[in-house]
Amino acid sequence: MTTTASSPAAPTPAVPSPAVPTSDVPAAQVLADLRRVHAGGRTHERAWRDAQLAGLERLLAEREQEIVAAIAADLGRDGVEAWMGDVASSRAEVLHARRHLRRWMRRRPQAVPLHQQPALAWVQPEPLGVVLVIGPWNYPVYLVLAPLVAALAAGNCAVVKPSELAPVSSALLAELLPQYVDPEAVRVVQGDATTSQDLIASGFDHVLFTGGTEVGRKIMEAAAPTLTPVTLELGGKSPVVVTASADLEVTARRIAWFKLVNSGQTCIAPDYVLVDAGVRDRFVDLLVGAVRDLRRDKAGAGLPIVNDRQLTRLAAYLRSTTGRVALGGGVDEAARTIEPTVVVDPDPEDELMREEIFGPLLPVLTYRTLDEAISFVNARPKPLAFYAFTSSAPDRRRLVREVPAGGTVVNHVGMHSLVPQLPFGGVGASGTGAYHGRWGFDALSHRKAVLSRTTRLDPSFVYPPYSPRAVRLIKRVL
Ligand code: NAD
Fold first, then answer.
1. What is the per-residue burial (b if ≥16 Cβ within 10 Å, else e) of 389-415?
2. Residue of 93, 164, 214, 233 with catalytic role
3. What's the whole-number average pLDDT of the chain?
4. What is the pTM of this model?
């Protein structure tokens, strides 16, 4: 059985966007201005790059409260979560880049084959030019600042297009970024899909897009005429497999915690759980208990959902599921909230199991053999993240090896995104390319091949006409 996981926003009809001011400078003009700055050469210098990263570090330290308030206004997210999800995460990327920039920028010497000696060969990271960063609404600051860290560390100019569905954060970025980074080299352009399309059409050197899979397709299509390379950080359903050997209490708590963060509106949130049939009931009890415990100061309250469109979509999944609601299920349209909800054994054909959930609903399904669990996951598009809870080393090895995914975490959820040493990205329908740390620096640099030879040695036998002896020699070394 194959299904497609699409952007959670894809199936619902379009609604007017909240107002964000659209830039009145044409996209082509913005790009031309930045190209001029890039051609001037200052962005190549390490001192310039470090100054931009230092600026971002200061922005995050000095304007933390405003960022947290903007995220609360856009998403209803509480202060600690806004700080963890957008401020601390962005800061970690900045600090890591500052610490390693000198090493990343170094030429990378390579061995030279005999037929090219004497010579030096190296790979020289070179800025691409002007990079376009398009962000989603769910982590409206982090998901534009982390790509921006990569773009600036790599010596590029950048245009940032935040999501129009997080208008307060978008406006804040437009106000703050020019105060903390080189305003001639970084521009914030606010707007919606049309703005993104106009920007892409003007022909950047790279587009780093974060958003839904369906929109990702449109980005790639829009980038094709100008042969603009793209990094697509997309979505999809990220499964969790819980084997009978897992520590069920810790497993339930970790899954519940990460699913509740940002009301489940996280690209790497656990989307559904496949649990061994022998421990299913105990696991569900522990999961329900863990959610109640984590919400004990807000008992009975729902979780905020970003807009009516998303609320309607999630409510429809709940109405149409054939599964048993073991916890929650309440939808409050007026308050725009949904209770944390656990749905046991829905039909795999339910909408809840066909589309990316991107909200506080967690289906729990049962498997009998590990083969069955692996086949279930692999019959669907390759996930952005895959989580395996087990204390069996053979099961862990099988799950890591046999489930293709953007990233895999054993015995936790989502934490790989906080390790800047690891590449972050999807595979197949969950994305193409990766960033974070050195991986982001490399994604937004051209790795230029340089071969430097000497003219001191120039034997005549390598040039035609070739004597039989010369041919024998050439054949031996080539
Ligand atoms: P989205 O794809 O609707 O929008 C993302 C951005 O694309 C916005 O800035 C929007 O203005 C722009 N956009 C929308 N339609 C466009 C079009 N036709 N042409 C050009 N640009 C367009 O995504 P969203 O609703 O903001 O975010 C939710 C999705 O993003 C989920 O699927 C989630 O899994 C995914 N996501 C992925 C990651 C990741 O790192 N892989 C992170 C967060 C969210």
1. bbeeeebbebbeeebebbbbbbbbbbb
2. 233
3. 95
4. 0.94
